[in-house]
Amino acid sequence: MVVAALVSLAVMAGAAAIIGLATAGLTYDSIEKIPHRRVGLLLGCSRMLSGGRANLFFAHRVEAAAELFRARKVDYLLVSGDNRRKEYNEAGDMREALIKAGVPAERIYCDYAGLRTLDSVIRAREVFCQDEITVISQRFHNERAIFIGMHNGIDAIGYNAADVDAYNSFRTRCREQLARVRTVLDVCLLSTAPRFGGEKIEIGVQAPVLSNSY
Q1: Among 68, 98, 69, CA closest to 81
Q2: pLDDT along the chain (214 residues), means of 10
Q3: CA-CA distance, 188 to 155, in Å (whole number)?
Q4: Against a cut of 0.90, is the pTM above it?
């Protein structure tokens, strides 16, 4: 058991190092320094946590995306999240929050089939025709998304949303270590594809789709 635990820790540390080194210098904390990209990819998460508490990851990501748009660092936002159940719609909830934050509805596109970060990133190219994006999430998440993009023909940078304190992010941080291992396996060994395809939607040319389309 001790050997297995040590091997597991080594694997997680290795995956974290691979992603961290590969994406060094590609995320930004400063709205002034980040370059303009036509489309920002906002990675989805749930609005509320179990027990009815507001999800700070959700709030901070929406705030960062609205900030980028107001500063004219992106022209359109592609919101990607899970919508496998009728009562659970990450992309729809984020779209609603962005509109309340002042982003025009016609500048927001939703990908309702962003079941995983890998799906969200690859579908940005394969379905939404983008090979250059700004990813919007917390730094650790941006790094993983950029790494996926690097291995799938996407020139990606990241804008780091405000982080969440250790108490409220402990479980997310633990899951992230496992997610990094899976990501390295997916892109370096397995060439994993998104679960769903779909007809192409050209951002800024075709009108946004407002309902589940996969």
Answers
A1: 98
A2: 74 90 97 98 93 92 98 98 84 96 97 96 97 98 98 98 85 89 96 94 84 62
A3: 17
A4: yes
